[in-house]
């Protein structure tokens, strides 16, 4: 599916994107320890669209930050409800592209979202997707700076993208 930058901006503005939550379950104890936030598009004509149908276009048009900012209030409110119903702090993971993390103007929004999620009773973990080659972004100092500000990072679906078998050298 192809979506123009205008249509994607319109969908963000109209709040057509919504968060869905996939539970993260402890393998040894079986208890829910958190959730992964997955953006979905409630498209007025096409129905519910999974991320694979729109994230490539969101990233290609540079709208990843706008999408995350558009979902932030709902995600923080949902996080507070989830932590309250669990009676304890839970982890919430959110996927980000590497280029978005490397965008200096987006970093304050990322820090603010992390603080809001912490205040809501969640432990945020930002998962870096493997759609981009990390070797193209050698600024490890950026991650150190953000980690010093309290942010936690992980690699989303490690081994399925640029760290996969086809990219490794024997």
From TrEMBL:
EAL domain segment(s): 1-170
Family: Belongs to the YdiV family.
GO molecular function per UniProt: cyclic-guanylate-specific phosphodiesterase activity
Name of this chain's protein: Anti-FlhC(2)FlhD(4) factor YdiV
Database matches in Gene3D superfamilies: EAL domain (3.20.20.450)
SMART domains reported in the protein's UniProt record: EAL (SM00052)
Pfam families linked: EAL (PF00563)
Subunit field text: Interacts with FlhD in the FlhC(2)FlhD(4) heterohexamer, inhibiting its ability to activate transcription.
Highest taxon of source: Bacteria
Organism from which the protein derives: Salmonella enterica
